[in-house]
């Protein structure tokens, strides 16, 4: 890849980029809380049946994430955005670590667990208190608040998917970092980039369905491989 020819970059990140910060991935062994599976907690049905349980789980995750440190992969992406003219970061992560690292243009496909939404009014606001003062959280209007994330069975925010599509189809380089590439429509993002003529580089500790069509597959931890890739890139620009 000749980095001197790159005009526009899009990046798709998944849980693997935060793995070295200590945030559990979804499909790893460490993703369990008590004896529940993610699929039994992150659903509208689970929240209807037991909002307290679902909020307890988010309270646990928010506290865990609040105690995590950013890693070199988050920091490198924030640095790249400052240095490159057209740069869009698309993430499936709800941990908010890209924002914390200073990334500005972030498309959050699955929302963010530091935002809450009133189930009656639909209003969204940031809510950073850890631990939560009460579970379930309630809005001033009396209705329940929920984490502003996308749950299983829900559709993605239309604006986010449109922004991801636009960035993927117009970029010349797509980096795909730490995603298993099995959850759609997010998993389609690198495919849109490929179909739009972009060069696709995947960084993951193991091969995924995306590896079959990526132009380059870098096998290794994101926090090690991203600074290496960026160092090589900057050298090419000198
Ligand atoms: P997964 O848990 O499915 O996949 C994590 C990926 O990261 C795997 O492919 C790992 O091989 C890779 N990985 C692990 N450690 C890594 C490291 N140190 N460096 C690089 N890669 C590493 O997570 P996602 O693909 O993000 O959706 O999952 C997608 C969606 O599934 C999530 O956003 C979530 C879940 O359902 C919602 O919550 C809506």
Give an overview of the whole structure:
The protein has helices spanning 44-49, 51-66, 72-83, 97-101, 158-170, 189-195, 222-237, and strands at residues 8-13, 86-91, 106-108, 111-118, 124-126, 145-149, 173-177, 199-204, 216-219. It is α/β, with parallel strands linked by helices. It has two domains: 1-22 and 70-110 and 156-238, TPP-binding domain (Rossmann fold), CATH 3.40.50.1220; 24-67 and 113-149, 2-Layer Sandwich (SIR2/SIRT2 'Small Domain'). Helix 3 packs parallel to helix 7 and helix 5 (158-170) packs parallel to helix 6. Bound molecules: 2'-O-acetyl adenosine-5-diphosphoribose. Residues 14-16, 19-20, 25-28, 42, 92, 110, 150, 178-180, 183, 203-206, 208, 221-222 line the site of 2'-O-acetyl adenosine-5-diphosphoribose (OAD).
Structural key phrases:
7 helices, Rossmann fold, alpha/beta, SIR2/SIRT2 'Small Domain', about 240 residues, three-stranded antiparallel beta sheet, single chain, binds 2'-O-acetyl adenosine-5-diphosphoribose, about 30% helix, 2 domains, six-stranded parallel beta sheet
Task: Give a brief description.
This protein has helices spanning 44-49, 51-66, 72-83, 97-101, 158-170, 189-195, 222-237; strands at 8-13, 86-91, 106-108, 111-118, 124-126, 145-149, 173-177, 199-204, 216-219. It has 238 residues and is α/β, with parallel strands linked by helices. 2'-O-acetyl adenosine-5-diphosphoribose binds next to strand 8.
SSE topology sketch:
Blueprint: E1 8-13, H1 44-49, H2 51-66, H3 72-83, E2 86-91, H4 97-101, E3 106-108, E4 111-118, E5 124-126, E6 145-149, H5 158-170, E7 173-177, H6 189-195, E8 199-204, E9 216-219, H7 222-237
Parallel strand pairs: 1-2, 1-7, 2-3, 7-8, 8-9
Antiparallel strand pairs: 4-5, 4-6
Helix pairs in contact: 3-7, 5-6
Bound molecules: 2'-O-acetyl adenosine-5-diphosphoribose.
């Amino acid at each position: 890849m000749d980095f001197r020819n790159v005009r526009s970059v899009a990046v798709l990140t998944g849980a693997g980029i935060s793995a070295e910060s200590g945030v559990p991935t979804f499909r790893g062994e460490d993703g369990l809380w008590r004896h529940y599976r993610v699929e039994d907690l992150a659903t509208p049905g689970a929240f209807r049946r037991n909002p307290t349980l679902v909020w307890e789980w988010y309270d646990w995750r928010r506290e865990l994430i609040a105690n995590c440190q950013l890693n070199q992969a988050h920091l490198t992406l924030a640095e790249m955005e400052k240095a490159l003219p057209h740069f869009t970061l698309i993430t499936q992560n709800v941990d908010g670590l890209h924002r914390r690292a200073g990334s500005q243009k972030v498309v959050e496909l699955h929302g963010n667990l530091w935002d809450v939404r009133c189930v009656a009014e639909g209003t969204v606001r940031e809510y950073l208190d850890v631990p939560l003062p009460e579970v379930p959280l309630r809005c001033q209007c009396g209705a329940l608040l929920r984490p502003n994330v996308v749950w299983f069975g829900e559709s993605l925010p239309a604006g986010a998917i449109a922004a991801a599509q636009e960035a993927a189809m117009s970029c010349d380089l797509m980096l795909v970092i730490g995603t298993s590439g099995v959850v759609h429509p997010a998993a389609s993002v690198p495919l849109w980039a490929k179909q739009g003529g972009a060069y696709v580089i995947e960084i993951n500790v193991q091969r995924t369905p995306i590896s079959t069509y990526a132009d380059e597959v870098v096998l290794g931890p994101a926090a090690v491989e991203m600074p290496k890739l960026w160092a090589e890139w900057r050298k090419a620009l000198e």
